[in-house]
Amino acid sequence: MTRTAGTYTINTDPISRLTADGQWYGEALAIGGIGSPTAENVYYLNSGGSWTLTDADAAASSKGLLAIATTGAGFDRGMVIRGFFKNTSWSFTVGATLYLSTTAGAITQTAPSGTGDIVRVVGYAIAADEIFFNPSPDWIEIA
Known about the structure:
By secondary structure, the protein is mostly beta strands.
């Protein structure tokens, strides 16, 4: 799917289940500084308008608009803001609630628990390697 700068893509007419690494269905943006994000990592749109890796250890990188980077080059590399995403390196428990991780750009099924960590639900596992990415606008900072 080719995107141009400043587009909002909705890909919600799946004809089959996701079968390959990096496939997705849902809503994606091609805005902000695309740079060269690593596909399948989670990013936030920073105040300068660029996508930066998330990190639950830092409030600034955990509270804003979140997205998963897709494969491709330039603006073909969109950012999925809500939808289904497959990453064959994931190994989640089906039905698990998923959170931002204290590992930059990662998702975990264990809520962060350290002082100053941000706990933010980002979706749910629908298979060991497939998630429904739907970041909550709410978050909690561990005291």
